[in-house]
Every structure is written in C-alpha cells, then in structure tokens.
Amino acid sequence: MNTYQIDFEPTGKSGKCKGNQSLLDCAHQVGVGIVNICGGHGRCNCCKVQILEGAVSEPTASELKIFSSQEVKKGWRLACQTYPEGDAKLLVPPESMTTMQRLQVEGFEIAVTPDSLVRSYNVCLPAPSMSDLQADVERILGGLNNKRIHCNNIDIEVLKNISHLLRSWDWKAKVFVRGSEVVAIGPQSNRQLGLAVDLGSTKIAAYLIDLESGETLAARGAMNPQFAYGDDIITRLSFVLEKRRGGKLMQKLVIDELNRLLVALCTEVDAQPDEVVEAVIVGNTAMHHLLLKLSVAQLAYAPYIPVVKAALDIKARDLGLAIAPGAYVHILPNIAGFVGADHVAMLLSTKTIWQKEDLALAIDIGTNSEVSLISNGEISTLSCASGPAFEGAEIKDGMRATSGAIERLSISNDAIDYLTIDEAKPAGICGSGILDAVAQLRLAGVVDKSGRMLSNHPRVRNNKGQREFVIVGEGEKNGLPAITITQRDVRAIQLAKGAVRSGVQVLLAAQNRSSEEIKRVIIAGAFGSYIDVSSAMTIGMLPSLPLNRFEQVGNAAGTGAKLALVSRSKVAEAQQIASEVHYTELAAVSDYAKILIEAATIDEY
Amino acid sequence: MNTYQIDFEPTGKSGKCKGNQSLLDCAHQVGVGIVNICGGHGRCNCCKVQILEGAVSEPTASELKIFSSQEVKKGWRLACQTYPEGDAKLLVPPESMTTMQRLQVEGFEIAVTPDSLVRSYNVCLPAPSMSDLQADVERILGGLNNKRIHCNNIDIEVLKNISHLLRSWDWKAKVFVRGSEVVAIGPQSNRQLGLAVDLGSTKIAAYLIDLESGETLAARGAMNPQFAYGDDIITRLSFVLEKRRGGKLMQKLVIDELNRLLVALCTEVDAQPDEVVEAVIVGNTAMHHLLLKLSVAQLAYAPYIPVVKAALDIKARDLGLAIAPGAYVHILPNIAGFVGADHVAMLLSTKTIWQKEDLALAIDIGTNSEVSLISNGEISTLSCASGPAFEGAEIKDGMRATSGAIERLSISNDAIDYLTIDEAKPAGICGSGILDAVAQLRLAGVVDKSGRMLSNHPRVRNNKGQREFVIVGEGEKNGLPAITITQRDVRAIQLAKGAVRSGVQVLLAAQNRSSEEIKRVIIAGAFGSYIDVSSAMTIGMLPSLPLNRFEQVGNAAGTGAKLALVSRSKVAEAQQIASEVHYTELAAVSDYAKILIEAATIDEY
To answer: ipTM higher than 0.85?
Structure first.
C-alpha cells in the first residue's frame, strides 16, 4: 500500500496517509479536527474539504448528489469518501473544522500537587536462573516490595505480556500501581500519562495529562457523535428505549469518538495510547448511563432514578477504551437523575472560589441547567429544564456558536451593531446573541416586562401574523433571508431564563437568604462563558449584583476531571462533595409554579 | 424453526433439538457425551453415530469420504454434520462416547463446612418515589448494609441490568457478594451455584456444586480438545511458540469445551449458566498458562519459569467463561514450572490423610509425574518426566484406557489371563495393563532385573530382530494383528517407572529418610487409580511396603478444586501449601544420574 503526504490548509499541518485511508481518517491521525457526525459514512455531509492539489479517488454517488458540478470541478469533496492517489494539499473550510465549534476545552487551571491514583516505580530485577526459580510476577512484586510497595495483584492483561516484555527490557521496567494492583508495565523511559474527559451531550473535551507533573500535554474537542440521534438528552434516551440495540449504538459512538480523540492526543505528543494508565470521565447522568450502557428506562421518567450515584472504577477494557488494557477509568459520582458528575467536577474545580464566601452560587447553563447554592460550605443543588433555546434551537434564526453566528449585539435607536464568530458574514444568531438581543430590546422598550413585543420601533414588522424585530434585513445580506428575533423567540428565552432564575430563587428561599447576599456567582460551561452578564441581569436571568461578583470559568467540569485525574485527594473531595450535596427535586417544591411565573418576567431584580 | 425429539441410545436420554442444531449440539445439550475434538467441523471423525429411526439431513461430502456406501446405507453419520428433519432415534457407539473414556470425574468426598468466597443475601427493598430518590445501586447497598454487609462496589456487568431486574422482581432480590463487591444478583428463588474444574492435559473434569450445601449436583468429563494439537505438553507448547495465534487457539479450545461442559451440567439440574456465581480451576502449570493465554516461551525451556505462581482471581468474562458475567474464576496457585495448581489441589484434598503421618508420600503419575514427600508437615516436591508410556503411548500395542484395552493381566506358566475395559474384545493394552505385564514377565523370569527379555518362554518370539512376548496371538483374534509386549516396550516402562522412583529417592535422601519409614503412599490421578499396586512394587516403581499403606484416591485434584470452591478457608489453605512447599529442581540434583540408573532396575526394593 502506497503512502502519501497530505497537507491540510489553513492549519499548516501535514502527515502521511495510506491509499486505503480516507482523508478524514488521515486528518484525525494528523490532529486536524474535521467535523464528522455520521461516523464517516457520507451521510452527514459535515466533512466538506476542497482539494487544492494532487490526485484523489473519483467522487462517489453520494458526493455527486450534494455537490454541484461546478463545486466538483473546483475540487469539493467529502473527506470521508475521498482516498488519496498521490501527495495532495487540501483546504478545510471553517465550517468543517471542529476547532471552530468553540469546543470549550479551555478551563481555568488550578495548581495541585500531583498525586494520582496510579503511581509508577522503576524496578531493576535479577534474571532467573537454575538457582533462582521465582516466577516473573513474584519477581516484580518482590522488586516492588523492596521499595516497600505491597502489591498482591497483577491485572490479567498485564500478565499476558509481562514475561516477553521483562526479558526484552533486560529486567528493567517501570511498574504502574493502583491501590495494590499492577495495572501496567512499560520500559523505564515511559511517561505516566492520563486522560481526562468532559463528556457533554453536545461536545466532548479531552485532555492528555502528564500524571507526574500534572501538566496538560494536549487538549482536543469533538462533537458528541450521539448528537446525530438527538440534540437533546430526552430524544437520545427515547431512541435507546425504542430501538433494539440503541443503547449499544449510543455507547459505541461515544467510545469510538473517545478512542479517536485519544489517538489524536497521543499523536500530538508522540505517545502510544497504551501509555495512558488512568482515565477520568465526567458527564451528566444521562451521558454517564449511555457511556456505561446502563439502563435508562427509570432515568427517563419520574422520579428519574439513576442506576448508580457512587463513583465507579471500571477497567478500560470493559468499556472498550483503548488505553493500557489493565488501566481503570474512574467515573466521578452523580448527584441525581439530572445532576451528574459534570456538576460535581465543576463544584470540585471551583471550590477554591466558593469556599471563601458565606453565600455563593454556581451554575452551569445548558439544555438542563444545574444550580448550586453554597451557604457556608453547605451545598444545595437542583436541576431545571431550561430547554434548548440557549443552544440556538427552537429560535427562528438560531444557530450553534459556529462561524457566522451573531454572538454580541447592541441596539441604539434604530442602529444595530453586532459581532459574528470569526467575523464571518452573519448566518444566524447563537445563544449569547439572543440573550443580548432580548436584553437590548427590553432596554429599548421594544419588549415589555411581560415579554410582549411592541410595534413602536421601525425595525419591528409583522410577519405571518407574528411580530418580529429585524436584526439583519434582506437588503443588508444581498437578498439572503433576513435575521430576525420573533415574538416566539422572546417567549422561548423567557421560559429558558425563567427556569434558571426560578432554580436560584427556590434555593435562596430554602435557605432564607436573599439574592443580594450572594457574594460570588460562578458561571460555568460553554454558553455561560460567552454570555454578557449584564444582559443576563437585564432580563432577570441572573440576580442583579455588582459585576465584579461574577466569574465565568469556562469548562470547569473539564478542569474538575483533570484535577481528579492528577490527585487522589481531589477524587476523595469529589466523593465528599457528591455525598454532602442536598438535592432538591423541583417537581416536589410546592409553590414552584408561582416562583417560575415571577422568574419569567423580563426585568432586572 | 421446527423442534424435534431426539432419542439417544443406549443411554436412554432424549431431548429437543432445533432444525438448525446439529445432533452433536443436541447431544451436548441433553447431556450425552459424544467425543468431539475438532470443534464440530467434521474433521476429527470422532462423533460417529448411527441413525436408527427418523429423517435427517443428507450426508455431507466429508462424511461420504469416511463412510463406505454400505455404512451410509446403514445410517452411519457424523453427529456434528447431521441436522434433524423430524423426530429421530440414534445409537451412540461406545467409541464415540466420552463417558467411556474413564474421564475420572470420581474423586473422594471430604466433609467441609460450606463457606464459599461468594455469599448470598436476600434483600427486600423499598421502591423509589418522589420522596425517596436513592439510586438503585445505593438502594441495594443500603439493603445489604442493614444486614451489616458492607459492600462498596458493584460489577459493571451487574450494573447494566440491575435496574430492569430489580423492578421485574418487585424489589426482592438475592444479592451475591464476594469480598466487598456485588458480583451477581438473581431472584430470591435462585440457588447459589459454583463450578469446579480439574483441567488436565488429556481430560477435563467439571463439577457443578451447590455452594450453600457443598453438594455436588452434577459431574461431567470431556477430552481436552487441545489434545488434537499434541498429546503431550511439550508438543502443545511448541505449537504455541511456532504458530501465530497458536496461544489464542489453545485458549479458545479449552474455554469452548468448558462452556459446553457448563451448559451440560446446568441442563442436568435445570439451571442457567449465569446462575453460576464462582468457579475454581486447577491444572498443571502449562494448562494454567494456556488457559490464561500467558506467555509460555520461558516455561518451555530451562529454567522453566512460570509467569505467575500466586493464586489469581480473574473475572469470568476476561476468560470468556459464560458463568455470571460479574463472577470470578479463582485459579489455585502453582508451585513451579512443572508442578502446578492441580498438585496443590491434590495436596489440599489429601491433607487429612498425610497430615496424620510423620512421613507420607503423595504422587500423581502421568506424562509428568509430581511427587511430594511430607515429613512432619513439611512438604518437599519435585516433578519428573515419566513420559507417555503410562498413557499407552510409545508402546507398540499401547492404547488409552478406553473400551477394549487390556487393563489387568496375569501370567502363570504359558497361560495368560486378562481383563479388558467394558469386557470388549481386546484392542490393545493400556497403562495399567502394561504395568501388570512387565511385573508378570519379571515374576515369570522372562524379563531380568536389567530389563532384558529372555527367550526362555514359548510366548517369546523374534519379530524383525526384536524379542516380543505374545499376549494375544493372531489366532486368538480371528486373524487380526497380535497384541504383544516388545523389548522396546519394557525399556519404555523402565524409563517411566525409573523417573517416578528416582523422584521418590531424591526426596527421601534429602530428608535422610528411608523408604521403609513411609507410613502412607497416596496415589492420585487417572492412571494411578487403576494400577495394581503390587505390580508397581514388583517392578520397583513404588517402594516395597505393606499394601495397607497405599491409598488410591482417584481425581484428588478435582476434589481439591471442589473444596476450594466451597470453602474460603480451603482457598487459604491451598495458598499456604503452595507457599510452604520446598521445591526441588531435579536437573540441579548433583548425583541424579546415579539415582535414576538404580531406580530403573526392575526389582522390588
């Protein structure tokens, strides 16, 4: 099989590709993130690339369907359907790049003394002889024992190769120990690597960590491929409940993606996946159950019971995760059916912030939003169904936070200013933009307290019986459809922000505290990191407080996963947080309807 | 798919068979042991059966090759190649039946208080509600905690089904706990079953045990299918070292056979394989390594280093054993490269016999023989290469202990009396018969002390330059070939018995004891159970002692496996035995050649 050199523009990365590998596979190998939801089957049409130079395979029937003959002539192809037939150079347009999708691998870093659950020890062992007939395993355990490390167990997968390896390394080895078990061995030159994963329902963030230094060696994001089977959790759970083997498929999709990320991360730092000797994964309770292929029937309906809340240690091979075969995956604990390990991880990583205050609020806003109120170290938590509006869904011109989305917006009289992601031509409006828009409309008096859109502004028009506010008119876009905010969009935001705020109010009421007493508001997650906090206050989604009390912490769940990976005391801390949380089920709060209606008002309070 | 009634004669057993199941599969299901070495691929021609009544599929090409047209007409078929097309009755001839092969499932029984590593507890749990949101796992662990059983771990495979099952059982369950881990759950009506296996290089003995009562519910034997790749261990190890995937194949053969035995045992007592919540397997070190797919390169050559000697607890699923998926397989410890867990199990089960004596000998005779001398509770052990002569191999008219083999023999003047297995027509001579023959020839003065065959008996003749003693002449067998004992056969037995006896002498010398001091000789294993101890003394294989000091204990290794399965204190005892044994490597004994030559003398001493 011939091997070719493939250059990926504009990233500047390049690598070798075999003739039987698709350009998509090659891109993943090289570490160029090309979007791929269907698993490389030419169905999702996400992986469009343009061949700039070089010979490749002929277009397939499915490609000829989606590209015009003009586009085909210009070299447009699906990367998953295209195989090189010589060296080639290709262009990955922004919309095909996962890195453009704000994958939120960035979190804040916390200094922690590295002390992973897995420790490594270098041993130099005597070779066996007629006068020293010790078995290989007893030889290793004896070598550890000399260092006062008492192990009594070697994983069966380690056992299978140990004899050959010890001899090939001339009886010098690095032994990786977890508890009293040897989970991996390597040559003494091996690093001690770990994988931390924040498994979101939309996005997956993965980090390759040096467990000895605690350093993040590489970080990557990818779409959660389950997305193709439902962009919200309920749709995915229904899919699993309705389809035979649905659960198996959901698990496979995620594991395959994790393995791809693993390979890409390792390639970046010139390591092998089996050098990774520990993994930590956090996700919401539904992602957790789908990852482990646990039953979801009891999770999908009231009273929303998880199979398990406790932290789990599972052999990587039992999940199909291709790290060292004897290694464990540590799964942080859940709190409840709709408050998962990702929230625990967020609370873990932000503890240094909230533990200093007598009253702090930590929220992660998404389709389901988790809200924690921490009052003198006591954590009360609930989950509220804020719906998909913040993700741009169910909004007329809503879109995800990708290239061309309006993410910031201001209105002064009839002048509109906006900012798009990548400064591309406006294609729609994403969550943070919608939030701004509603706030600005409220300030401009176009939307009243009750959420009604008035007809007092030249940009308000009637469209099929519904009022809408024109942000980008047809004329401004060379005849392309306009981008507007409709009355219905305002109602969707009202519901979403009302859900979040009502959660805050329920927790405050239970503690007999008022919102003004909150010293610190921690906002985590993809959406929360990009919103304008002032806008969120203007519409009453967040309590009205001095701006310096807010902290937008990025992917704090990912940071929490990294902390647990690097430090066993953080693992214990996470378990303590999860076990101490006081969980409130909103459905059981007696006057919740009243609180929700108040919270839906579009007004600062 | 239609289902048919199949009757198996002469066993009288019958059962249901689907049209897509071969008669071999059906036989295994019903518990009729039909020999099958090739795994049902029509290659080994072991599973010959005769269709007596009923419609079956047409003969395949491979069947037409091995059966004459006359035989085909009479209904002769390979069970693995034949599918029913209606109710049928068939005859399984003795040579096709595994049970005819003296599979040595019989051992002696020892009363032991049942106290398995796995314990079961019945729990009745409250159903979840809006006011009781505990996760399913925490609910179970809480239920156990109420009984003062503190578990902190549930196997991932148990987790996968637990939610559905608990609800279908209305929150009443039997929980199986090993250490601090839940390894299985079942309805409260479930029994607590265990599987004990003696994995011999020739034969496999398997026992289904009720762990609560300690009772053996069913026992079955089968040939070790690895046999097709070498009847001795060295050939099998060479196969693994020379063939790519050889190790994988060896493992698969054994695991598949164990799974077949498991299904057959369970069928006998109307249980499901996943009701089996623990297994114990013992075997020699090579069988142990092939079972676990461990490296054998370092085991096959001096200094014969095992990968591991310590006892192991391995998840059944990691071996592919189809018992409860969260259950463990406990593997008893090895002693050395050629003294395995089967010898430990034998020492464990015979401890009640040897521990009473100040000097006892425990031996297991086979292709490799293990010899232990126990002097005031201190065990010294070695292994000697006695070769395959006792198994009937490398003997001109030798055969395994199956139907038609001469197993007992006496010579008085020129009259010969013999006994064949099943009282069938003599087809050859098996190990115990050869032993008798050499002893009788020695007593009759036909063979001298040095092993030379004299020409002083009318039945001694010269055949192609070699002397041989005619046991069954051509005339006595209607013109079929004669059965004789040749000079070369006597030499083979001399070597084999010399190896065993030299081992005994080396151990005695090391302890400064003489053979007359031995109070008890325990003889274990298939061959040892059937030999005439007097004959073994006559040729000097065993020390000359009063007959009442000998005890033939049958499959003591199998009994040891059962004990470890039923009792955790026996597991600990086995570990203690293995760790305390003083192992002697014969190759390192300085005057071994001298001892071996003395031991090869055919004389009582």
So the answer is: no
